[in-house]
From TrEMBL:
Residues 399-532 form the Guanylate cyclase domain. Gene3D superfamilies: Nucleotide cyclase (3.30.70.1230). CDD domains: CHD. InterPro entries: 7TMR_DISM_rcpt_extracell_dom1 (IPR011623), A/G_cyclase (IPR001054), Adenylyl/Guanylyl_Cyclase_3/4 (IPR050697), Nucleotide_cyclase (IPR029787), TPR_rpt (IPR019734). PANTHER family: ADENYLATE CYCLASE, TERMINAL-DIFFERENTIATION SPECIFIC, ADENYLATE CYCLASE, TERMINAL-DIFFERENTIATION SPECIFIC-RELATED. The keyword Flavoprotein does not apply. TPR repeats lie at residues 595-628. It comes from the Bacteria. The keyword Transmembrane applies. This is Adenylate/guanylate cyclase domain-containing protein.
Length: 659
């Protein structure tokens, strides 16, 4: 007999397509009576054996995988790998021992690829040894550990692609690593010993087809990875597409063809595999020539793995020798690590670019929020500025706050342009901080005026049950106090006039595709602006409507007084105005507080048309506090109507005929 492997169809020149044939193999060996094999558990080890077979030792059948014939073909294929057959005590004996193996297999189906499953198709011979020696020499724990690492790497990169779909080469590498781990595991003895090699186990045809199916896509997927890693969407790369198409055809044929044609199909694919490996080498050389980043590293990995890959393919086709395989597994591990290092390097580079881009976007976002408040965007139920569209709108009940730096026009004439801007920013910066602290936001700066909005619900509200009226009024008080505390370095002081109104309004976006802006519209906004203008007419610091005053909660005991009922131009409904004097100088605030009830009595008499009684009260109050502008105003009004009595439809409401 020639050296193993023994492919019986080749050794005995069995005619092609001649059906089933039986071959008997017999071997003799001698054992001394002191031989260790007679004292310890022993067994026979077969690197591989097929297709049906029966093993006898000293005339005793110790393992049999012999199945009925069906239409001159095998009903079950049992080509096993790494088979360990334990030998029961008493079967081995001192002196002469005889092993007899009967094989049953099919003749070759074609002249190109022999049926190498019929016989011993591995370069290693079967052997008789102690079971301990067999298990120690066939351990594959390190190999399985490597394959597990491949699987983890592959699974990780597939998941990574799910979160970053624009870089499809992560998916290709993930599939490449996963299929590699599956293919290598399907070739291990561990798989066969765990799931296949037990007596009466499953037909090995399915596992053999699965092993080939895991092998076929590996190189095509790697080519797709290399193409996308270096060129992404550049170029068509028709050769890669052709190779992938032919590999897909081979994959389908592997499952659709009868089992006798699976090996010829594998031979065709192995030829295609050689061409693909050569193309990969040429591809890597071309990438280096074009100075693609990391192309040299990948070429080194391809070179190391390609050499052993070519060797493994040639050996699988021609059965050269068998010692190379461990080297290929090691080289493949190096290859995987090279690719991972490239992906890590690419990811770090992309991460740094992403960080720089995020910083730039963050700066642009912060700059945008300086022009459009983030609260405005939230009210429109948008998460970011890019989601804002023309026509977005939301109706909401809010408190609208207008504040004006009185006398700025006169002040600005005394300042240079640069000093004008510094003057405004000195106040506006502090005003914005105060408004923000009280859960509001500045909507617009209008020359020397400021417009702010306050909502009933805000994450920045510091107190329970705070509402928009409380927030707006607290901001007004804090701003007036802040202005009083400032010592203007250029000798020019400022004064404030503030108007607050509460009610429904509409927030929205207006403009065109080229220019978009946010705006707030509604009677509530218009009335708030008019009230702020009236603060100058009444010479008060803070003026609020009854819509705001009646909604006060925590500030309901604030020092305030009713000063008038007015109908602004263009409206028909009267509005009650209240002066908030909480932030006035203490002496003036105390005087207003002491005369508040008397003033209210006088205003009531005035509205009722009892002008003489009202005038007496206002005259008395004027003597007590001649600097009280409201008292002086009502004294003048009452004196005027006493000289010229009004008509019978008198209601005491002050009607404004201009804004």
């Amino acid at each position: 007999m020639p050296p193993i492997p023994w492919l019986f169809n080749t050794i005995f020149k069995i005619p092609q397509r001649s059906g089933l044939h039986q071959v008997d193999v017999k071997s003799e060996f001698h054992l001394n009576k002191d031989d260790q094999l007679l004292k310890v558990p022993a067994g026979l080890y077969f690197p591989d054996i097929g297709e049906n077979w029966k093993i006898e030792l000293n005339g005793i059948v110790i393992r049999e995988e012999w199945y009925p014939i069906k239409e001159d073909s095998l009903s079950v294929n049992r080509s096993l790998k790494g088979l360990v057959v334990p030998i029961n005590n008493g079967i081995l004996k001192p002196g002469k021992n005889e092993i007899k193996i009967q094989f049953l297999g099919e003749a070759d189906s074609n002249p190109f690829k022999p049926n190498d499953h019929f016989g011993f198709y591995h370069t290693k011979n079967f052997r008789l040894s102690s079971l301990e020696g067999i298990y120690n020499s066939t351990s594959e724990y390190f190999d399985i550990f490597l394959f597990g690492i491949y699987f983890i790497f592959g699974f990780y990169h597939v998941l990574f692609f799910v979160t970053r779909k624009q870089d499809i080469y992560y998916l290709y590498f993930g599939l490449f690593s996963l299929l590699s781990s599956v293919y290598f595991y399907l070739t291990t003895y561990h798989l066969y010993n765990t799931y296949i090699n037990y007596p009466g186990g499953p037909d090995t045809e399915f596992f053999f087809r699965g092993e080939i199916s895991a092998l076929i896509p590996i190189v095509p997927i790697f080519m797709l990875f290399a193409k996308d890693f270096f060129y992404q969407k550049d170029g068509k790369f028709w050769m890669i597409r052709i190779f992938c198409g032919l590999s897909f055809v081979s994959l389908l044929a592997n499952w659709l063809l009868p089992f006798e044609y699976v090996l010829p199909n594998l031979l065709v694919y192995q030829v295609l595999l050689l061409l693909m490996l050569l193309y990969v080498i040429l591809f890597s050389i071309n990438s280096i020539r074009q100075r693609k980043p990391d192309s040299v590293k990948l070429a080194i990995g391809i070179g190391i793995c390609g050499i052993f890959g070519l060797w493994d393919t040639l050996d699988a086709m021609t059965k050269i020798v068998g010692f190379h395989y461990p080297f290929f597994k090691i080289s493949f591990s190096v290859f995987i690590l090279v690719i991972i290092s490239l992906l890590v390097s690419r990811y770090v580079s992309l991460y740094k670019q992403s960080q720089a881009l995020n910083q730039e976007i963050s700066k642009q976002r912060d700059a945008f929020y300086r022009f459009v408040p983030s609260e405005f965007i939230s009210i429109l139920d948008r998460e970011s500025p890019v989601e804002i569209k023309i026509g977005d709108s939301k109706e909401k009940t809010m408190s609208v706050f207008f504040a004006d730096l009185r006398g700025y026009t006169t002040v600005s004439e005394k300042l240079s342009p640069d000093e004008n801007i510094k003057y405004l920013n000195r106040y506006f910066s502090a005003f914005e901080d105060i408004i923000f602290k009280n859960a509001g936001f500045v909507d617009k700066y209008i020359g020397d005026a400021i417009m702010a909005l306050f909502s009933d619900h805000s994450e920045r509200a510091e107190k329970d049950n705070f509402n928009s009226a409380d927030n707006a009024l607290q901001s007004a008080i804090d701003m007036v106090r802040h202005v009083h505390s400032l010592n203007d370095g250029i000798g020019i002081g400022a004064d404030l006039g503030i108007g607050v109104n509460t009610g429904p309004l509409i927030l929205g976006t207006v403009g065109s595709e080229r220019r978009i802006d946010t705006t707030v519209v509604g009677d509530t906004v218009n009335l708030s602006s008019r009230v702020q203008s009236l603060s100058g007419f009444y010479k008060t610091k803070i003026l609020v409507t009854h819509h705001t005053f009646l909604r006060l909660n925590l500030l309901s005991e604030i020092r305030a007084r009713e000063i008038d009922t007015v109908i602004v131009k263009g409206k028909t409904q009267p509005v009650i105005l209240y002066e908030i004097f909480e932030a006035d100088p203490p002496e003036m605030a105390d005087q207003k507080d002491q005369t508040k009830s008397k003033l209210s009595e006088g205003i009531t008499l005035y509205k009722a048309g009892q002008f003489k009684s009202a005038f007496s009260i206002f005259k008395e109050l004027y003597k007590q506090n001649p600097s009280d502008n409201i008292v002086r105003l009502y004294a003048k009004r009452t004196k005027l109507v006493l000289n010229q009595l009004p008509s019978g439809d008198w209601d005491g409401i002050f009607r404004l005929h201009r804004k």
